[in-house]
Design a protein that fits this description.
Helix content: 40-55%
Low-confidence stretches: none
Oligomer: single chain
Number of helices: 10
Number of strands: 10
Mean pLDDT: 91
Order of helices and strands: EEEEEEHEEEEHHHHHHHHH
Strand content: 15-25%
Amino acid sequence: MQPPRVWSALSMSTALVGKKLRQDCSFRVFSTHTHSCNLLTDQGELIALVSSLHGNGPFHIVVPPALLAERRMGEVGVYQPGKLVFEKQQLAVDTAILWQPCLTPICIHNIVTFSIWLHESINGYLVSPLFSTEEAITSPLHSRAATGLSALVHGLQQTNLDVVNKGVKALIGLGPGLTPAGDDFLVGFLAGLTLGPPITIVSAPFLSELRTCIDKAADQTTRLSGAWLRCAAHGQFGETWHNLAYALQSGQRQKIEQAAHHILSTGATSGVDAMTGLLKAWEMAIAQGS
């Protein structure tokens, strides 16, 4: 009998170590894509095997593309110390480079200038109709997005948790796709609060309440999108957001725009919706400091 082929993971999120990956944890493949494969554990946790095109993320294991090509829907496996065991292949993770998904807060002193640069970077990208500023957009989805966004902003400004919660619930799951636009917006909004200026947009305790609201409501959307929302609620973001943080710290426009384009090019409108969320958080900060 031919021994199973052993692949080696390139990198892996530290958030998976000892939590989602436990001794004899079983899993099944519940979706496959060209550059990713999503596993669902016996505890309902999501683990994504991705190629380097997607890169590091809070629940990602970066693997060789050839491994992804062999995964099939419904395929089952089990985690044993240092490896994911499939029927005919094994993925060694004990030698993978560990990647830290927690986004470190930074102080931004040029938020107005950086906001202008990021707004300009969005030009040329397809904007989701949910968050378009065109007056002609009056679809039910757009109206709900506008209502949810208004409640979110006003609730934060008034430190009214009930209003914030209404805004969050109106936005979560709003829109089509694996990661609906409303979810992408909220992920970017949380990133904006993390990568915010020295001006306090919301107090630390109230920010914690906002994150809890989003975490609790994350089961109201798709499984993949819910995983991104929960991670963002715990301060964990994909590598592209970390690269944007490094670029913002450099203060160099070319680096900032390059990092922004990597986010903006995500999905059909996912990246643009997320960047719109970041800019909305910064808009609040700018208004607060004026």
